[in-house]
Amino acid sequence: MATLGFESYAVLPFFTMFLAIYLIGYFLIFRNWSPKIRPEASSCLISFFHGTPAVLLASAAILSDPNRGFAAANTAFQKLVLDYSIAYFLMDLLHYLVFFPSDVLFIAHHLATLFVVATCRHVVSHGAFAVLFLLLLAEVTSACQNAWTLAGARRKEDPFAAKVYDALSPPFYALYSVVRGFAGPYFVYEMVVFYASEHGDGLVPRWIWVSWVAVVLMAIAVSILWIWNLWVELYRERTRKLQEKIR
């Protein structure tokens, strides 16, 4: 009889870890913050513990596979990293369902992301290379985005937070634009070319990889619209401040 190792149950301890971090943030670290922003700050905290670690783990999982590539079968290490991300998105989804149940866009994003990661982990035996690389691209801006979000949440009541927010905005916007506007679409193109070719035939069921591509393209489109609006807002704010100085 086959035995099930730790990796078969890894989602539960990872989820417990993210839940503990969230509760520590909500009840201890951010206990003196406004009740309106404590949930968002706690969400950023667990994102800190997922984003950069996920980039490092995904990179290690990809590089440790000598057969890495779109045709490679999922390795045990890669499955573990996928479980790590499943646990995070489940915890953050719970956060939105409890505190922001009307935020349909983010709830839909998390459900779609969970579909991609979970089907790669539990339904098909291939695809981790593609999914982990996409995860890497999605999370490489995470640390900067979380710092920017926390600073933005406090900038009206904390002058230092306002300075941090203003300083982080241009470089964060630029990095996010490059990753989501160029690197992400290019990798998705390479992914489609492979899975649609005879080399990818049968490795991942067509309905699954097409679903993956659809989810990722929608996420990229929303991300581009979001960052475009932030660039416009930044331009208007900087123009207004410049005009005030001239006057």
From TrEMBL:
Q: Which keywords does this Swiss-Prot/TrEMBL entry list?
A: Membrane, Transmembrane, Transmembrane helix
Name the record gives this protein: TLC domain-containing protein
Lipid bilayer topology: Multi-pass membrane protein
Q: Which residues form the TLC domain?
A: 36-239
Which compartment or compartments is the protein found in? Membrane
**Organism expressing this protein natively:** Arachis hypogaea (Peanut)
Presence of the UniProt keyword Ribosomal protein in the record: no
One Gene Ontology cellular component:
membrane
InterPro entries, sorted: At5g14285-like (IPR040327), TLC-dom (IPR006634)
Q: Which domain of life is it from?
A: Eukaryota
- Please give the start and end residues of each transmembrane region: 12-30, 104-124, 130-151, 172-189, 209-231
Q: What is its main location?
A: membrane
Q: Supply the SMART domains for this chain.
A: TLC (SM00724)
